[in-house]
């Protein structure tokens, strides 16, 4: 299936970087948090190669922030996630599964602790603001919940440190993984974290104030000209190789964190106050009956995975594939799927129903990168 | 600006009618509630003409349902909206603004009362399920909140009654506006309402069970062949002519219902229990300082309105346009905008900053159709 056209409207929000993205020749978008997210510049394969070799600037403004501010901000944050936050320090970023009362995943954001009474939640594709606001209201918490004017810009790739140092100074190299520091750009203070939705290393800049967006974009482009810097975007092939899950693709509110392989981010014993804790206690003890797995699919490159592909073994459906792409580096189709425990061991042979027909596949011990 | 490509993925959910939509030659989509919504079949202008003259079948499965079920369903429903629901009868549909604690619009759905303890909320483009779930949880209400397997299919246009009567029987003609009845298709009971997102008349069928979707689609297509039935979709020109608002385009959570011209759906005196009631009491008494208006924009056809167009008077910004299109029937550019009270009287001359330059415009007394 080829890509259809997307009808622009105000409802599919442009970002403060959209002018830069268009000037860089964006070829396709997806929609994420009611906002445009680029998906292709030259081609998915060419973008992939460049991401692994150079440095890219990504408009990920669609990672909207939910800000919690006030005396109950910390309490509310812990209500949202089964991850124990008691020892989280200011300046730390944490990947936090967010669950409802049944333990179902509502989002899988990165939480940014700005202060004891102030958090940002950098969200995946669902209106988490609505859940957080509803909970805060229902529990009469003393907290303000809002979407601030903050638009993340990601700098990803092996040359990300070099590029960032030119714009923000050498100190940027000292930021540790999933920590952030405050750096100045044009007299304004910005949170800069070592994080991002790729396995190639890099940073996410939380650009506070839309007016600063294009000046920063342009400064980075100019500073990195000799590093072959380009506009880029989260890359399907690279993220599947690396096992980076995508909310809405690889998991929904039907899934527990444990099914998503996120059990290590669930401290059900100590995360006192978490809304879904009771529901998750049992699954934490007994384990899930299905779980995310890396799956290699045989044969030539598969088509776009725009719906769940059934996974079978001996005629029975034992799972589904939710993301897939041909990997030039690993010479196979790489895929993310949910597989029942009877068939999730590494080396298990499966059949995947792709649009191009049934393909042999094999459960992997882990993701590729 | 021409339409860019949309990258398909599982996260942008296909609908149970997508196979029919594709077979009918859909040319472009938007994304609505994380789901594909067709926007163009032949051309926006050709689809518009046909909608006004014949009958169309619309895949509006993206109008997802939020189901409230249980002893507290009615109480929760009233908490969500400032519209007084005390006299709502089973079998009734109601357009209900949904507001947060500040009176800001979270969604503008149609609520369907199935029974005293069972409601569907047929939502516009935001994850209302998250807000409703959060409120129900925080208030410890005895209610189940879920997204059921229900996909609305709209039949719109002047020949809608004729087409529907052929498939569901003559009784379908007796359904009154914004009422629904139960009708049988292939032995299954379906709620059929006289409603829809156009001013051309018609029905919405709440298709319960994805397996029934394509059989119904095909039955309608076959039954209407001599009525020139076609696949269609909500039409930008027709909806702006008719003043049908679009959540995310024409209003956001920054706006009160009164600003959106929805004051007549707010019974702030009697809607006891509504979460945003206190915040709306003052605005209900004093009125809003800006409000939605129909605006005619001079000159040749304007381009796509994919961002707010500033509206000026004498140099000052006094509003913004959020939706606009060239209307062949009215021979002008029709637009929906928010205008400050100093400039909202009918006949007021304004300047609108379109991508094609500044255009003269005029506030209208009402929408065109």
Q: Greatest interface and its residue counts?
A: A-B, 50 and 50 residues
Please summarize the sheet with the most strands of chain A: 6 strands, mixed
Which class of the largest domain in chain A in CATH terms? Alpha Beta
pLDDT < 50 runs, ≥5 residues of chain A: none
Given the helix and strand composition of chain A, which structural class is it? alpha+beta
Mean pLDDT of chain A: 97
CATH fold-level topology of the largest domain in chain A: Gyrase A, domain 2
The oligomeric state is: homodimer
Helix run count of chain A? 8
What is the straight-line distance between the termini of chain A?
28 Å
* Name of the CATH superfamily of the largest domain in chain A: Probable tRNA modification gtpase trme, domain 1
Shape of chain A: globular
Total DSSP E strands of chain A: 22
- Please provide the ordered H/E string of secondary-structure elements of chain A: EHEEHEEHEEEEEHEEHEEEHEHHEEEEEE
Radius of gyration of chain A: 21 Å
CATH architecture of the largest domain in chain A: 2-Layer Sandwich
Strand arrangement, major sheet of chain A? 13-14-15-12-4-16
Describe the secondary-structure layout.
The structure is a homodimer of 369-residue chains.
Chain A lengths: L4 E2 L11 H6 L4 E5 L2 E6 L3 H10 L2 E4 L5 E5 L3 H8 L12 E3 L2 E2 L5 E3 L2 E6 L2 E5 L5 H11 L5 E3 L3 E7 L3 H9 L11 E6 L2 E6 L8 E7 L4 H11 L6 E3 L3 H6 L35 H10 L3 E8 L11 E5 L2 E12 L4 E9 L8 E6 L2 E7 L6
Parallel strand pairs in A: 4-16
Antiparallel strand pairs in A: 2-3, 4-12, 5-10, 5-11, 6-9, 7-8, 9-10, 12-15, 13-14, 14-15, 17-20, 17-22, 18-19, 18-21, 19-20, 21-22
């Amino acid at each position: 299936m080829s890509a259809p056209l997307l009808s622009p409207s105000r409802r599919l929000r442009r970002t403060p970087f959209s002018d830069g993205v268009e000037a860089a020749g964006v070829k396709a978008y997806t929609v994420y948090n009611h906002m445009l997210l680029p998906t292709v510049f030259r081609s998915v394969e060419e973008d992939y190669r460049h991401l692994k070799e150079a440095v890219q600037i990504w408009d990920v403004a669609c990672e909207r922030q939910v800000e919690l501010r006030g005396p109950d901000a910390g309490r509310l944050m812990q209500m949202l996630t089964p991850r124990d936050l008691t020892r989280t320090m200011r300046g730390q970023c944490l990947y936090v599964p967010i669950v409802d009362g049944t333990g179902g995943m509502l989002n899988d954001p990165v939480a940014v602790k700005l202060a004891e009474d102030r958090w940002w939640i950098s969200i995946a594709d669902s209106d988490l603001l609505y859940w957080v606001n509803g909970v805060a209201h229902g529990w009469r918490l003393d907290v303000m919940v809002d979407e601030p004017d903050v638009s993340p810009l990601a700098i990803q790739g092996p040359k990300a440190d070099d590029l960032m140092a030119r714009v923000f100074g050498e100190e940027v190299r000292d930021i540790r993984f999933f920590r952030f520091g405050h750096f100045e750009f044009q007299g304004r203070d910005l949170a800069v974290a070592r994080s991002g939705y790729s396995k190639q290393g890099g940073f996410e800049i939380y650009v506070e104030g839309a007016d600063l967006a294009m000046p920063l974009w342009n400064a980075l482009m100019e500073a990195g000209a000799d590093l072959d810097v380009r506009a880029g975007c989260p890359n399907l092939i690279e993220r599947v190789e690396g096992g980076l899950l995508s909310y809405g693709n690889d998991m929904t509110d039907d899934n527990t964190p444990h099914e998503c392989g996120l059990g290590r981010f669930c401290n059900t014993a100590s995360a006192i106050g978490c809304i879904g804790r009771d529901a998750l206690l049992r699954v934490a003890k007994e384990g899930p009956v299905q779980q995310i797995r890396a799956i290699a699919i045989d044969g030539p490159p598969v088509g776009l995975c725009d719906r769940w592909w059934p996974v079978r073994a001996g005629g029975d459906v034992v799972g589904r594939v939710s993301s897939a792409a041909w990997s030039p580096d690993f010479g196979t189709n790489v895929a993310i799927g949910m597989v029942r425990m009877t068939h999730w061991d590494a080396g298990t042979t499966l059949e995947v129903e792709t649009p191009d027909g049934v393909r042999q596949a094999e459960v992997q011990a882990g993701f590729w990168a």
